[in-house]
Amino acid sequence: MTKKSRRQFLQNAGIATLAAVSPLAAESERVKELFIHHVLFYLKDPNNAQDEAKLLEGLHKLAKVPNIAYVHIGKPAETSRPVIVRDYTFSWMCFFKNIIEEEIYQTHPIHLDFIKDYSGLWEKVVVYDSVGPKKV
């Protein structure tokens, strides 16, 4: 190995090491990792059909946030295994290309209007955010 090629090798190795531990490497992971945002809504009055219809209307408006890759609005399924939670009114699950898109969604005017206009209907929400596990 000549001095020039060895020097070039060491420079390339140093650049590769810096890239692997830099915040930019972590940022590139944030850009390519699927992000799932799952919310369970519990109405204050779960037997009120008008409140349920109004919240459903709001969820359909919320689904128009442009950076949502896929959205599913659901009701509890008619299943009865002991591990299944069925006490919520609506399930809102949306998929984003990455966490950055989800962060944009959180501050999008449609999302902020949804909270302002419909939060009076629910007594609580439970949120499950998930990403894929890191490869070992």
Automatic annotation (TrEMBL):
Residues 35-130 form the Stress-response A/B barrel domain. InterPro entries: Dabb, Dimeric_a/b-barrel, TAT_signal, TAT_signal_bac_arc. Pfam families: Dabb. This is Dabb family protein. It comes from Dyadobacter luticola.
